[in-house]
Structure formats: structure tokens, C-alpha cells
Amino acid sequence: MAGSDTSTGTNTSASATAIPRAQDQLFKAGTSAREKYAALVVGRSGWGALLKHELIVTLAQSCPGALGLLLRKTLYPYLLGSCGRNVVFGQHVVLRHPHKIHIGSNVAIDDNCLLDAKGDTNSGIRIGDGVFVGRNSILSCKNGDIELAPGANIGFNCEVFSASRVRIGANVLVAAYAYIIGGDHDFSDPSVPVAEQTRVSRGVDIGDEAWIGAGAKILDGVSIGASAVIGASAVVRETVPPRSVAVGIPARVVSTR
Q1: Nearest in space to 220 (alpha carbons), one of 242, 241, 237
Q2: Are 112 and 93 within 8 A, CB to CB?
Q3: How far is CA 107 from CA 100, 125, 199, in A?
């Protein structure tokens, strides 16, 4: 998947973490199907958590029209760690480890989004007031944390991935098809497949009121200053100062606002 595998920076100072692959968890010997499902999706053990999750998902996740919106608005907060007022969940919104997802008020999560707070020691996903997450977008944790500050706007078909910490500041505009990749793989040993080497992550921080153009890719370890602009399809591998305009592959600062 792009957000978890496309970063190619050399994060020599990053912390290394061993994160099990989904297929390893799915086919782990000596574990029942219920336990595997609970570990990957529900995030809590026990029949009570599983039955509550399955009942709410069955009733609400795929229900179309106004009834579906009402059911999700009413029922999804029972799965979440916390949820404010006037939160709209589109059809087929998927929640994983939902007890580690915290959502403020006046938030819209559009159709077909995935909010995945998976991890053993992380805090999960925190979404501030007034945030919009566009259709088909993914917020994906692998033992990392994701914060969307108040007023952030995530466009359609975006991915935000975190193996440590990714913060998107207040009133940040992220255009469609952007990738924000808070993690990488150690590839220093050519005798071992990259997928089997440890993950490294320094995280990503995007300052308030920045604008990330369509198709841009923000790689692990990058900080983008407040009110900066990143051009469409740029690949950002280095820190961008506040109010700077950066474009290209790799991205270079070309002007200051």
C-alpha cells in the first residue's frame, strides 16, 4: 500500500520499530479466528466488545441514504473513544480500533474512508473540530499517532500514514491524492527483503494554514512550516520553512509568500 511502502528516504537517525505485517497476524498459529479479528479490527478482546462492534457495523456501515446517515451519527459514537456534536459519517466508513479514535464537533468523514488506529502502545487518531476528510481517504496507524488539528481539510483519495507521529495543523488544506507518509523501511541489508526489515519513523509535522497541492508526497522526517505551499505532485524530502513555496521532484523552495 502506498502510504506504508513508498517512502525511500534514508532515516539514519530515526527510531526503529518492529511492526508485524497484517498477513502475519491473520495466519498466526495457535490463535482463533475471533482473536485474530479482534486484534486487527476491534482492538479489544472479549465477546462484549466484539458483539457491540459487529452489531453497530452491521446495522449502520452500509445503510444508504438519510437513514444510514442517522444510524451512523447515532451509533458510531458508541464505538469511538470520544465524539463531539454534529459528526457526519458517510456510507462505508470503516473504523478499526475505534476506541482509540477521538473526534471533535462539526466533523465530516465522507464515504468509503478508513480510520485505522491500530497499535499496541499508541494513542491513535485525534480529529479536531471542523475537520473534513474526503471520500476514499485513509488515516492509517501502525503503532503511531495521527492528529488533525481543528479546521484541517483532507481531500479525496488521500492517505495519511503514521508509524510514530503525524500532525496536520489547524486549517491546513490537503488537496486530492496527496500522501503524507510518517514511516519508512530500513533497507540497509540487501540480503534481507525490505518488507522483512524493521520500520523506521521520525514522523511528519505540517504547520498551521499550509497548503499541500494535489498529488504531493510528504516523506518521513519532514516538517512543513506554517502557511507554506507545496506544489502539485511535489515530493518533499526536506524541511520547508514557514511561508515558503516548494515545488518539484524533489521539492525545492522557489519563493516566499
Answers
A1: 237
A2: yes
A3: 17, 14, 32
The one-letter amino acid at 179: Y
Q: In a structure prediction context, what are the per-residue pLDDT tens digits for the chain, which is 257 residues long?
A: 334 344 444 333 455 555 556 666 667 677 788 888 888 899 898 899 999 999 999 999 999 999 999 999 999 999 999 999 999 999 999 999 999 999 999 999 999 999 999 998 899 999 999 999 999 999 999 999 999 999 999 999 999 999 999 999 999 999 999 999 998 887 888 888 887 777 788 999 999 999 999 999 999 999 999 999 999 999 999 999 999 999 999 999 999 98
Residues 6+ away with beta carbon under 8 Å from 167: 146, 147, 149, 203, 204, 205, 206
pTM equals 0.88
DSSP string, 180-216: EEE-EE----TTS-GGGSPEEE--EEE-TT-EE-TT-
Total domains in the chain come to: 1
> Of 245, 249, 222, which is closest to residue 233 (Cα–Cα)?
249
Could you tell me the CATH number of the domain that includes residue 210? 2.160.10.10
- How much of the chain is helix, strand and coil, in % rounded to 5? 20, 30, 50
Q: Would 29 be classed as within a structural domain?
A: no
Q: How many CB atoms lie within 10 A of CB 150?
A: 17
As a whole number of angstroms, the distance between CA 78 and CA 101 comes to: 11
Q: Is residue 24 one of the residues assigned to a domain?
A: no
